[in-house]
Amino acid sequence: MRCSWCEGDELYERYHDQEWGVPVYDDRKLFEMINLEGAQAGLSWITVLRKREHYRKVFDGFDPQKIARYDDAKRAKLLNDPGIIRNKLKVNAFIVNAQLYLEMQAQAAGGQGPTFSEFLWAFVDGKPIVNHPKTLSDVPATTKQSDAMSKALKKKGFKFVGSTICYAFMQAAGLVDDHVVGCTYKCIGAR
User: Fold this and answer.
1) pLDDT score recorded for residue 186
2) Is 4-190 in CATH node 3.40.630.90?
3) Confidence of residue 61 (pLDDT cuts 50, 70, 90)
4) Is 37 among the catalytic positions?
5) Is 15 tagged catalytic?
6) What ranges make up the beta strands (E) of 66-185?
7) Residue of 45, 55, 70, 101 marked catalytic
8) Active-site residue, from 5, 13, 15, 118
9) What is the value of pTM for the model shown?
10) For the chain, what are the domain ranges?
């Protein structure tokens, strides 16, 4: 049994079963995930999920070193690519976020702050929050943790990191487990 939001689409079901809510600690993977959640803004996740492999291709495997150096020609090429969401603000956000990610990682390497993963996981005290929603309507769009994450990321200069985006990211990256009661994928430890 699965959460009803994914049923009826094989790609969505596979995503739900194998990825959604599974804790992710890898800095680069988290960088990819938060940017893709930002790309979702105003759209449904399935739209981005169907384009995810193409995003990975045209954004150099979400290598922040490469993305941070994108020039106007690369931006123009991306904005003409029908395989992604061609929104100038969202494309620019990937570039800005890559630059800020690299700053954070450099500071962490120098003992001046947390890694990207440590920074994000601090909003849930380093361990997943396991909720027990009975139905999808019991799942909030934001929480005090997503509000705090959004505020902190925005303070650093990150783009497309509003509280709703942050909460969706927290669910996707396993900082929060919002599988509904009865979903056989509920137990984090069983994955």
Assistant:
1) 62
2) no
3) very high
4) yes
5) yes
6) 129-130, 176-177
7) 45
8) 15
9) 0.94
10) 4-190
